[in-house]
Amino acid sequence: MVRYKATIAYDGTNFQGFQRQPNGRTVQEEIEKTLTRMNDGRSIQIHGSGRTDAGVHAQGQVIHFDFPQTRPLEKMRFGLDTQTPEDIAVKDVEIVDDYFHARYLVTEKTYQFRVDIGKPRSPFRRHYASYFPYPLDLEKIQQALPDLLGTHDFTSFCATGSAVEDKTRTIYEATMAVNPAGDELVFTFRGDGFLYKMIRIIVGTLLKIGNGRMPADSLPGIIAQKDRNAAGPTAHPEGLYLWKVSYE
Amino acid sequence: MVRYKATIAYDGTNFQGFQRQPNGRTVQEEIEKTLTRMNDGRSIQIHGSGRTDAGVHAQGQVIHFDFPQTRPLEKMRFGLDTQTPEDIAVKDVEIVDDYFHARYLVTEKTYQFRVDIGKPRSPFRRHYASYFPYPLDLEKIQQALPDLLGTHDFTSFCATGSAVEDKTRTIYEATMAVNPAGDELVFTFRGDGFLYKMIRIIVGTLLKIGNGRMPADSLPGIIAQKDRNAAGPTAHPEGLYLWKVSYE
């Protein structure tokens, strides 16, 4: 068996998330169906760097799988790309050592979150950015962002019901840019890992700060409380992109 | 009756074009349904600056309609915007003189055409750019573009079967830009009017030139032939945007 690592992008709009499940179309299922077909009907299973929820997108999700034969890499990439549905793109394929694992060996993940702040909401971004039509003081958001950096117990920013025990994570980068037209915010978060719905709760909290319903210096206190109720609402999934996964 | 002019955007993906027709969802029908509802069920008809085909988008389509009462403009805009489906946005509403006509008084129209030249095709652009995965010499396209400028009989760039008699049009602007990532071409065409499928045939011809299957200086000869068969193929509708309509 040869182990392949692939970098994929997908438009999450018409998926019930990445991970295979009994009901609903998933990214994993579509890719496994294609690989199994390429393997003359013998089942192939893939492993992703992590799940993404329904409606969440990926520009750089990483998967690995074992395939019986060595194939020319561009042939493998092209075959997978063109045989999967058009809302999945296969950007890169490489052969990796047998010990490579797309989930266990992750060192960093980068997410983007986009917020459409235009009036009206752009019909072209309705599936690709969350919409926030209320007043925003962007300066307050810029002030609050550095408070996320470093190693913290992010219990307050984890959806209740998560089975993960250790909720300590390190965030290396937390920035916000405004697009040239001034009608879209692009948040970038890079860290050693993120809890369930963590980015969406962070963005919901930052928007509450920008909207003046929480002071700009609220984040340290929210983190200290270790209580999901202390943070803001969960932002909608359509603004979230798994942007990059790093290894080694 | 008060005459209103409105500037609208729409994602053409799920429409059978702008103009009302017996079968299929259209932009005109959705807006007229909303206006009629806002008018207590009494029918309101809209007039657009022109049709757009199935799959074609608009950032700045202009319509006009007559409504019995004067309403605060932002209230009218917000009502129309929020009550139409989410793939239509109402960007601006103003009250105009009774002689204003969205179609007859057009002085200039601007279209954009986007071509995804990345490998693989971006899943996020599959409805918003035409895909061209073949080699392209962009310099040849840049060389050819100025030959479109000025007043010409564009019969060679008009879909056969068009009922329009005078096929002379003036093009003021014909440019191509590459996006920062280098994987998307953005063509802009501005003129006093365009024939049926004219932009799509122009782009199909330019891509043929860029791909080396036609010399870079072909356009004057194609124009001179006044024969649709002399030009290249019709590019796909999903790359086309009605960008701006100017009056007076």
List the helices and strands and how they pair.
Two copies of one chain form a homodimer.
Chain A: E1 2-10, H1 27-38, E2 46-48, E3 57-67, H2 73-83, E4 88-96, E5 106-116, E6 130-131, H3 138-144, E7 150-153, E8 168-178, E9 184-191, H4 198-210, H5 219-225, E10 240-247
Parallel strand pairs in A: 3-10, 5-6
Antiparallel strand pairs in A: 1-3, 1-4, 2-3, 5-9, 5-10, 7-8, 8-9
Please trace the helix and strand order of chain A, writing H or E for each element. Answer: EHEEHEEEHEEEHHE
Identify the most extensive interface between protein chains.
Answer: A-B, 19 and 19 residues
- What's the oligomerization state? homodimer
The biggest beta sheet of chain A reads:
10 strands, mixed
Distance between the termini of chain A: 22 Å
CATH topology of the largest domain in chain A: Alpha-Beta Plaits
How many domains comprise the coordinates of chain A?
2
- What is the second-level CATH architecture of the largest domain in chain A? 2-Layer Sandwich
Q: How large, in whole angstroms, is the Cα Rg of chain A? A: 19 Å
Q: List segments of chain A where confidence is low: pLDDT < 50 over at least 5 consecutive residues.
A: none
Structural class of chain A, please?
Answer: alpha+beta
Binding site for substrate (chains A, B): 111
GO molecular function (chains A, B): RNA binding; tRNA pseudouridine(38-40) synthase activity
InterPro entries (chains A, B): PsdUridine_synth_cat_dom_sf (IPR020103), PsdUridine_synth_TruA (IPR001406), PsdUridine_synth_TruA_a/b_dom (IPR020097), PsdUridine_synth_TruA_C (IPR020095), TruA/RsuA/RluB/E/F_N (IPR020094)
EC number (chains A, B): 5.4.99.12
